[in-house]
Hints:
sigma factor, 8 helices, transcription, RNA_pol_sigma-70_dom, HTH_Sigma70_ECF-like, two-stranded antiparallel sheet, about 70% helix, transcription regulation, Rna Polymerase Sigma Factor, Chain: A, mainly alpha
Amino acid sequence: MSEITLLLQQLASGDAAARDRLYTALYPELKRLARAHLSRQAPMTLEPAALIHEVWLKSQGEAAEHRAQFFAHASKVMRSVIVDHLRRQHADKRGGPESLVTLSTGGFEAIPAPDVLQLDEVLQQLARADSRAHQVVEMRFFGGLELAEIAPLLGISVPTVKRDWQRARAFLFEALQS
C-alpha cells in the first residue's frame, strides 16, 4: 500500500494530522498535473498554485480510497477550474472572446485562444451519450492514469477500458471535426 493511500485512509478515518502530511506528499504531483493542464492552454493568468488550491479546497469533502482515485478527482477539478476561468474571460460583460496579444521582438503577435469551451461541450455530450467512456477520458487524458489503473476504479476489465477509450476517442474526433 502506498504512503498516499495510507494517508487518504487515515484522513477518511478522521485523523486531522494526516491532512498536512497528505498535502506535503501530494504537492509535487499536483503541481506536475496542474502544469500539464495549463500547458495545453494558451497563456492565461491562471497559475499552477491556484489550481492546486482549488483542488485542495474542493477535495476536503471527497473521500478518495487510493492515490489513483484522488488524482482522477483532482484532474477533473482542474479541468473544471480552467473551463470556468475561460468562460469568465469570454463573458460578454468582460468584452467577449478577444484574441490574446503578447509582446515579442517581432512586434505584436496574436495567439489564437484554444477552443477549450468547445472541448468541454463535446465532453458533456459524451457524458450524456456514454458516461463510462466519459469517465475513462477524464481519468486517462486529464488524470494521466493508465488503462490498468482505470479498470479497478470503474470495476471493469482492462479490455473493456480499451474499448471505451477507443469509442470515446472516435466520438470526440467526430464531434470536434464538425
